[in-house]
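Support request, please re-run this one:
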Amino acid sequence: MQSNYVYDVDNNLLVDFIGKLENFEQDVNQIKKRLGIDFPLLHLNTTNHNSNNSMLSLSAKDLITELWAIDFNNFDYSVN
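Re-run finished. Output below.
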């Protein structure tokens, strides 16, 4: 679980910012501003495809939702 990296055993958040891949450019800009640094954001190894979500069966989606329920909750992701 990704939550193990940013929450302690009592479920206390250990960091003051969690970025998301879906908002990568905006989140990196926020971090740069907070730290007072600037650097170019390079776009390397990009692909042009849809989410893998459409390639998963309903049973696979259900299993993923069950196994990573804590992450879905802690990082505010929809299970739909």
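The mean pLDDT is 89. The longest helix spans residues 24-35.
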